[in-house]
Amino acid sequence: MRVNSNTSRPRADSWKSLWSLRFLRHFAQLQLGLFIFGLGLAVMLEAQIGLDPWSSFHEGVSLWSGLSFGRISQATGAVLIVVSWITMRVRPGIGTVCNMLIIGPWVDVMRVQPWIPHDPGGALGIASFCAGLVLIGVASATFIGARLGAGPRDGFILSLSRKLDRSLRATRISIELVVLAVAFAIGGP
Prior knowledge:
The structure is a single chain. This protein has 189 residues and is mostly helical. Helix content is 77%, strand content 0%. The longest helix is centred in the first third of the chain and has 40 residues, at 8-47.
C-alpha cells in the first residue's frame, strides 16, 4: 500500500484556514464592538449629563488643548500602552492597539452626526445618556468577547494591580479617582 506523504498537509492547511477564519470572526467582532463603543461615548458626550472619569479627562484636555476628544483618547491610550509595556512588561494585544486607534475617531465622527441629539440636557439628555450607557455595555461585551486584548486603560490598571499586589477593585478605584480629580481640575465635565 502506498502512503501519500501529502495527506497530512491538507489537514494542516485546513487547521490554518479554520484558525484564520476564527481570527477574522473575532477581529470583525472587535471592530463592531469598538464602533458601538465610539457611538455610545458620542451619545453620552452630547447628552451633557456627565461622563466616566476617563471620558471626562479626555474632554477636559480636549477643551483645554483644542484637539478633538478622539485625538486625546488616542494619545492617552498610546501613553498607557507604552507605560504598561516599559514599566510592567505588558505586551499589547491587537485588541489593545485597535482600541487605542479606533474608538477616538469613531467618537469624533459620531459626535457631528445630525441624528444624535446635541446639547440636550434635561429629560432628553438623561434618555440620551442612558442610551449611550447601554450602547457602551453592549460594546464592551462585544469587544471583550473577541478575546484579542484588553483596552489600554484596563490593561494598565490590571498590570498595575498585579505589580502593586493590590486588589483590582482598589487599584481601579484609586486610578479613576486620580483621573477624575485631574479632569475636574482642568475643566472636564
